[in-house]
Design brief:
The protein is an alpha/beta fold. It has 3 domains: 193 residues, 3-Layer(bba) Sandwich (FAD/NAD(P)-binding domain); 129 residues, no CATH class; 132 residues. Helices cover 34% and strands 20% of the residues. The strands form 5 sheets. A 7-stranded mixed β-sheet has the order 8-7-16-17-18-15-19. A 5-stranded parallel β-sheet has the order 10-2-1-14-20, with helices on one face. Strand 12 and strand 13 form a beta hairpin. The longest helix has 20 residues. The two termini are 32 Å apart.
């Protein structure tokens, strides 16, 4: 019997995880990746003996990926060793003070007391209530939403009391903490979705809860190592993983996909899974007349996330006093967010994230040296942010000034390797629409059935995985999107999806 053929466009985390499940389920899988290596935005950059993660730098809530590995007969602890970080990160405040965040609640209350004695004990209340909230939302995050009727499921009705559409995440945290610094410390995770906590729906208070409840992990070798190992396992399972082979167009018979075309050939397909950036893929691979709900004009009206300005730095020596992860919050955080989301101008006092992974994993740099990864949230591409050489150089200098504020004043003199990635690079080199690195925004009008469906509603035989579909952005959520998609796709191909766990 001829195997059912599936072509996956994109070897990012979603595409690779889908390939593993489909191959194990009996499909003949071809993965087409435009870049020279697998991983997409979750890949590795190698240069001068240094190794950097290009995008995600830690693993949160590894339960989902663990279950997926178990479903294909693999042990993630053997395939991809990870170390739980403690503290999981430092949050430093431009307004003064810092927190070394840990799941030791007594230690957290000791630190909170130095910032705001009135808030001692509030963290436990927040965690206890969000433990219930996650339990209510898990069935929703693990199920497809293909029509408005799916909103009538008992699981959604049961969780409705926790949705609170009138509240933002930031407003929700104000119910727990009086000190505005603590509100930010437990809501900045909205940036994992590329949004302001004061625009993000309150249901995403579970993000910070996941960190404290389940931990923040560093995969040995970096997050790119996870992608590389998944690519190797996919090949071991019989997948044909082809890098440096961008897809040029999809071939349709009516509205049903029939084949995928690249410069190197034509791949017939019983189904196509799109893991590429959703808006970019639709506008470049699918003729506009085949799309109504997600036409080019409709896509232009949608809200997209912010972007990021990146520095990948290989340096002489080490900063052993700098935590593995540091999130530095600007002194006027409200202004910082307003400049990014409303005014769409470069922030003059940016918040900055710095990863210093060699304090945990020295293998990422030559002996006596280390890597620093610097991420600055900035607006998506617009007329205010052309990212020409002058703007890029000016913002680089501003970023180094802010890095000096957190104790890295001698950094520029110690750089042996440097690479900059701007929103324009995300667009041009990674095919990210508007350079919006976190995809479609996660406002209530673009979630559940209002997000592009995992079984894409406008085309026959087309399925989606990744941040542009349900449940949304972030590595654990992207992995969950693949389970939701595979549970629909495998039966559609006449194959069993029983082995895929339901969590």
């Amino acid at each position: 019997m001829t195997k059912r053929r599936v072509v996956i466009i994109g070897a990012g985390p979603g595409g690779l995880t889908t390939a593993l499940q489909l191959a194990h389920g009996g499909a003949q899988v071809t993965v087409l990746e435009s870049r020279p290596q697998v991983g997409g935005r979750c890949s590795s950059l190698y240069a001068n003996g240094f190794r950097f993660d290009t995008g995600p730098t830690f693993y949160l809530y590894p339960r989902i990926l663990r279950e997926i590995f178990e479903s294909i007969g693999r042990d993630i602890d053997v395939e991809i060793p990870m170390k739980r970080l403690d503290p999981q990160y430092r949050v430093s405040f431009g307004a003064g003070g810092h927190l070394d965040c840990t799941n030791d609640l007594q230690e957290m209350d000791r630190q909170i007391a130095t910032l705001s004695p009135l808030d001692v004990g509030a963290l436990k209340k927040y965690l206890d209530e969000n433990r219930v909230k996650l339990a209510k939302f898990r069935p929703i995050l693990e199920s497809p939403f293909n029509s408005v009727l799916d909103l009538l499921r008992p699981s959604l009705i049961s969780a409705a009391a926790f949705v609170r559409p009138w509240k933002t995440l930031g407003r929700e945290l104000q119910d727990y903490f009086h000190d505005p610094r603590l509100v930010i410390a437990f809501s900045f995770q909205a940036k994992y979705l590329g949004m302001s906590p004061f625009r993000c729906p309150s249901l995403f208070s579970i993000l910070s809860f996941l960190e404290y409840e389940y931990g923040v992990f560093h995969p040995i070798g970096g997050c790119g190592q996870v992608s590389e190992r998944m690519g190797e396992i996919a090949t071991e399972l019989g997948c044909d993983v082809r890098t440096s082979e961008p897809v040029e167009r999809l071939e349709f018979e009516g509205k049903r996909v029939k084949a995928v075309h690249t410069a190197k050939g034509r791949y017939e397909a019983d189904a196509v899974v799109i893991n590429a950036d959703f808006a970019h893929a639709m506008k470049t691979l699918v003729p506009d007349h085949l799309r109504k709900r997600w036409s080019d004009a409709k896509i232009e009206t949608k809200r997209f996330s912010c972007s990021t300005f990146m520095l990948y730095l290989g340096i002489r020596g080490r900063y052993d006093d700098l935590k593995h992860h540091t999130i530095h919050i600007s002194k006027d955080y409200d202004r910082n967010l307003r400049q990014i989301e409303d005014e769409k101008v470069l922030p003059d006092d940016p918040s900055i994230y710095v990863q210093n992974p060699c304090v945990t994993d020295p293998s990422l740099a030559p002996e006596g040296k280390s890597t620093l990864y610097v991420l600055v949230p900035v607006p998506q591409l617009s007329e205010n942010t052309p990212w020409d050489d002058a703007q890029t150089n000016a913002f680089r200098e501003l970023t180094f000034k802010r890095l000096a504020d957190i104790g890295l004043g001698d950094l520029k003199e110690r750089i042996e390797y440097e690479q900059i990635v701007t929103p324009a690079n995300w667009r041009d080199d990674f095919s990210v629409y508007r350079g919006a690195t976190f995809n479609l925004a996660h406002n209530l009008g673009q979630m559940l059935h209002l997000r592009p469906h995992n079984k894409f509603e406008e085309l026959g035989g087309v399925y989606l995985v990744g941040g542009g579909t349900h449940p949304g952005s972030g590595l654990p959520v992207i992995y969950e999107s693949t389970r939701i998609t595979c549970k629909q796709l495998l039966p559609d191909l006449g194959l069993s999806a029983k082995f895929i766990p339901h969590g």
